[in-house]
Every structure is written in structure tokens, then in C-alpha cells.
Amino acid sequence: MSTDKIIRGILLVMVLIGTIAYGLLYSHASTVFKLLVPLALLFLVGLVIRDVLKDRDSGKR
């Protein structure tokens, strides 16, 4: 298993943990938490997507 796939897996686990925490804490959360957590999760998903696309492009050459 390559390092890139391990890092991608770690990012996906971080998204999963963040989503679960967001769901559990939503009713007690402040407005800042309700705004920043989804933005952070979108950022992590963006990193995963960028990594996958980068991996595909490098595999074609």
C-alpha cells in the first residue's frame, strides 16, 4: 500500500470522525462551530478529491 493511499485513508477517517462529532454536538453547538466544522469537512474532502485527481493524472503519463 502506497503512502498516498494511507494519507487518503487518514483524511477520510478525519472526515468521518468530524461528521459524527458534528452530528452529535449540533444541538449544543455555537454558531461558529456550526459554520466552521462544515467548512473544515469540505476542505478535507477537497484535499481527498485533489489527491485522487492528481494520482490519476500522474498514472496516465
Total helices: the number is: 2
Broad structural category = mainly alpha
**Poorly predicted regions:** none
Alpha carbon gap, first and last residue: 21 Å
Largest sheet: none
H/E series, N to C? HH
Radius of gyration: 15 Å
Provide the helix percentage. over 70%
Strand percentage lies at under 5%
Mean pLDDT across every amino acid position: 88
Shape: elongated
Number of strands: 0
Keywords: Membrane, Transmembrane, Transmembrane helix
Transmembrane segments: 7-26, 32-53
Please characterize this protein's 3D structure.
The protein is mostly helical and 61 residues long. It has a domain at 30-54. Helix content is 87%, strand content 0%. It has two helices and no strands. It has helices at residues 3-25, 31-60. α1 (3-25) runs antiparallel to α2 (31-60). The longest helix is centred in the C-terminal third of the chain and has 30 residues, at 31-60. The model has no long low-confidence stretch (mean pLDDT 88). Keywords: Membrane, Transmembrane, Transmembrane helix. The chain crosses the membrane at residues 7-26, 32-53.
Architecture blueprint of SSEs:
Elements: H1 3-25, H2 31-60
Helix pairs in contact: 1-2
Describe the structure using short key phrases:
single chain; 61 residues; mainly alpha; 2 helices
Give a quick rundown of the structure.
The protein has 2 helices and no strands. It is 87% helix and 0% strand.
